[in-house]
Amino acid sequence: MDDPKTDFEKNGFLVVKKLLSSDEANDLRNKIDNIVNDETKKHMTFYAFAIPDGIRKYKNFWYLIWHPNIIKLLHNVVSKNIKFAIHNDIHRNLTPQYKYDGDYFKLSGWHRDTRFRSNFLKIKDKEAFNETQEKFKCIRLGIYLNNFDDFKSYLYLIPKSHLTSHSLGNKFEIFFWYRVFAFFISIITKNKFARFFPFIRKKPNNMFSGYSKPYRVELNEGDVVLFDTRVIHAVSPSQGTKHSIFIDYGIENEHTYDHINYYLKERKDLGYSDLQNKQLDDQLEEHDLLININNLKNFNKSPMTGRHSINPEEHIKGFYLKNI
Fold first, then answer.
1. CA distance 76 to 192
2. Which of 94, 138, 159, 235 has the fewest CB atoms nearer than 10 Å to its CB?
């Protein structure tokens, strides 16, 4: 078995059991419930609830950003130069709504947690993530706060889906997997979702290696999942109460700046707070987790080739130039 760092770099994710104690998980569940209860009194009754930027908005969650167990994990597996990358979410019962029988071909909602959401990282020698100058090191940490038996929702992650060498890049293999194989599976399973399953090469640069099968995870309270934000993943429908928290980290480079800018400048629908919060920033700086604010403000380009397309999108460059 590989060491955690090697395993993470190879597959794109790492599952760590009981990183937080049961008492901590219980305390965080109560805090989330209190927020949801307060918010629903203002609006309406919600079964599912998501709070974008919830960690920064609610001070009693700040400590999670620099929780010693989390920072130790990040230093050991990713880098000692890791910084808080602002993107974060608090979820309660956020789940897809459809019947599911355990067949991953019948899952819906496969996605990456990046600006670029396509299944293909390379088409005709164009790469979605330009790493010639700086390596991509944007990491997402998921904290789960209930026992699996309470909600019975699996997390599925596709190994190696963060690697360009494992992405389908040949039009003939794309035709085979999506127009032939997936179509056949959709007929057999009588489920249209099979036609949108993200096929990833099992071996690098080998179109005849078969596809990488999803890794299914049962998560319990205090467990965390660390994954490269490019990793394709999905969840099965929840059958009970589920609380979870997600926090992004990254090393100081253009990929991390672009990731942050996407949520702060482009995703206005998510209602992110202003970039700077002196009280929070002082604590981030104390824990060596504060991103260089001046570098971030002066960043005016995207190292990616596009938002949801492999081709350049000039409006992104224009957006950054307008908002310097």
1. 41
2. 94
271 Ramachandran zone, left/alpha/beta (phi>0; psi -120 to 50): left
The single-letter code of the amino acid at 319 is: F
Per-residue pLDDT reduced to its tens digit, 11-70? 999 999 999 999 999 999 999 999 887 766 555 444 557 889 999 999 999 999 999 999
Domains, in order of start, for the chain: 4-322 (2.60.120.620)
Cβ(138)–Cβ(261) below 8 Å = no
